[in-house]
Every structure is written in C-alpha cells, then in structure tokens.
Amino acid sequence: MTKIKSLADLRKKQEVFQSQIMLRERSEKAEQLVQVKVAMATCGIASGAKDVMDFMIGAFEKRNIPAVVTQTGCMGYCYAEPTIEVTLPGQEPIVYGYVDLKKADEIIEKYIKTGELVDGIIPVNYQSIDK
Amino acid sequence: MKELALHILDIGHNSVAAGASMLQIEMDYRNDGILQLSFEDNGKGMSSDEAQKALSPYFTGRTTRKVGLGLPLLKHTAEQCGGELSIVSERGRGTKVVATFQTRHIDLPPVGDLAGIVMMLATAKEDMRLLFTLRSDGKSYTFDTEEIKQALGGNIPLNHPVVADDIRGLFIENSNEIRNFS
C-alpha cells in the first residue's frame, strides 16, 4: 500500500475511500452499533484514558465489532478513572471504572460480545423524572 | 501528565468546551532553545479576571466538579522546565494560552503520541477547525482539518476507520520532516 505523504495523495485516493465507505455502510446500521464513550477530562487523560480509547478503537476494528468510540468530558467519577460508558444496542448504558487495557479487553470479550457483566461497574442511582 | 501530547490534548479540550469553531495550536522549537506551545481559539472566552483565576486548580467552568486541573498542571510543567504560562482571554472573542519550556531541560516530558492526540482533537467537535503547526529549524508544517477534508472530498469524518490510518500517516510523515521525535 502506498504511503500517503501529501494532500495530493489523499485526493488521488478519493474513489478508493468512497467505495470502502459504501461497503461498510451496507453492513452497519446505527441502531445496531455498540456505543462506547471514554471520559477524557484532565483526570482521565492523566490516568491513561487515551491509551484505552486507542486500544478499543483498534480492537473493534480487528475483531470486527461494529462500534462507535467517542471521547466525552468529565463524567464525574474522577476517583475511578479511566472510566468508560458502554451502551449495547437496545440496552441501558453501563459505566465501568478503573479501566486499564486488560479490563478494556475483558469488557469487549465478555460484556460487549456476550452480554456477561464484568466487575467494576459504577452504579448510577437516579432515573429521570419523565420515566 | 507524562507526555507533552497529553497536555496538548487536555488544553485543546478547553477550546472544545468553549464552543470554539477554530483552534490554532503551535508547537515552536525556537532557535533560542525555548519550546513555545500556544493555543488560540475563538470560543466564548472569559473576563480577564476569570482568565487569571483559571490558572488555579480551584476554578473551573464546569458544573460536575469544583476543580479544574488542566491549566494549573500545564503551568506547573512549564515552570518546572524553566518556562512560564500566560493566558489572555476576552468574553465573546476567545482565549489564548502560551506555555514555554526550556527544550533541553531534564524535566521536559517526552512529546508522546502527537499524531494520536492531533487526530483526537481534530475530531472532538465536528464544526471546529483545527490547525496544528509544528516549527523547528526554520521549517514548518501545518495540519489543517479544513484542507484535509477538502482533499478527502465528500463529508468524511477524519477518524472514519477507512481514512484514519492514512490521515495519521500523513501527519507523521510531514511532522517527521520538521522534527524527528523518535
């Protein structure tokens, strides 16, 4: 694969990108995507949340799991950083704390792939009024 | 923070939170042995009072907590490395933060994964344009999300799995020409 070194290289590859994107879109639907939010405030960044985010993005690609990983601000659980919020399609979001790379791997293999809950869940004890 | 890249990611997030539509970051390895790192955004800004208070860990714009560590931590690193941090802001116009470090100072953290954090900041807010300029030895490279989006054609987010590796590679290739961090 030729390395991209300039904007011109990117332009030349436009058609390749377009067809690859269309291939993906056919096999992925928004409601079926797993959503992972990684808390990236100062406490998160200092505790290694960036590495967790990079790891998860790579792992989802390699293991062919349709997922969206995004960075968010402080979720409030600074004592338990890095924290991630995982929402399986059609389910309530669950927040995991103390997520290092090993834990992230476990969460992907157990919770995301099979639905089996993993240790380290931070309970959210409120429900909004309109529920 | 163990790496400069993490400081950059952290402070960059402030501009995202401030609703900026443009963030310019410059990393200038000056000829006088000083590394100058500056962030300039057009977000909601602060009064000059608030801007000075922002350098304290006990001041923050968010509501989930009473502590804001990003700027104080960067200030600490800068001062530990024989440099300083200044902040200028104006409500409704934006904020500019400039941090300096002695490039050869023994306590200067390693740069870290610059490409990775530039990618993260480039995609942190869809309508925010990021310009990241690296300068050294009279050379410079600017990573401009606007230019890249145009080169990609269509409306492709820069972190889309199909293009992410290429964009990251583009940054690494060009930044290594300016200064090789490895």
Through-space gap between termini of chain A: 52 Å
Low-confidence regions of chain A:
none
Question: Helix- and strand-based class of chain A?
Answer: alpha+beta
Provide a count of the helices of chain A: 5
Summarize model confidence as the mean pLDDT of chain B: 93
Helix content of chain B: 25-40%
Low-confidence stretches of chain B: none
Q: What sort of overall outline of chain B do the alpha carbons produce when their principal axes are compared? A: globular
Order of helices and strands of chain A: HHEHHEEEHE
Strand order of the largest sheet of chain A: 2-1-3-4-5
Biggest beta sheet summary of chain B: 6 strands, mixed
Count of DSSP-assigned helices of chain B = 6
Features:
heterodimer; A: 131 residues; alpha+beta; five-stranded mixed beta sheet; B: 182 residues; six-stranded mixed beta sheet; 6 helices; 36% helix; globular
What does this structure look like?
The complex is a heterodimer of chains A (131) and B (182). Chain A has five helices and five strands; from the N terminus they run ααβααβββαβ. Chain A has helices at 7-12, 14-27, 42-46, 49-62, 101-114, and strands at residues 34-39, 67-72, 84-87, 94-96, 121-122. The longest helix of chain A has 14 residues, at 14-27. In chain A, 29% of the residues are buried. Chain B has 182 residues and is α+β, with helices and mostly antiparallel strands. Chain B has six helices and six strands, in the order αββααββαββαα. Chain B has helices spanning 4-17, 48-53, 70-80, 114-122, 145-152, 161-178; strands spanning 22-29, 34-41, 85-90, 94-102, 129-136, 139-144. In chain B, a hairpin with a 4-residue loop joins strand 1 (22-29) and strand 2 (34-41). In chain B, helix 1 runs antiparallel to helix 3 (70-80), helix 1 (4-17) runs parallel beside helix 4 and helix 4 (114-122) crosses helix 6 (161-178). The chains are: A alpha+beta (131), B alpha+beta (182). The A-B interface holds A 3-11, 13-14, 17-18, 20-21, 24, 40-43, 45-46, 50, 53-54, 57, 61, 71, 73-76, 78 and B 1, 6, 9-10, 13, 17, 62, 64-65, 68-70, 73, 113, 116-117, 120, 124, 147-148, 151-154, 156, 160-163, 166-167, 169-170, 173-174.
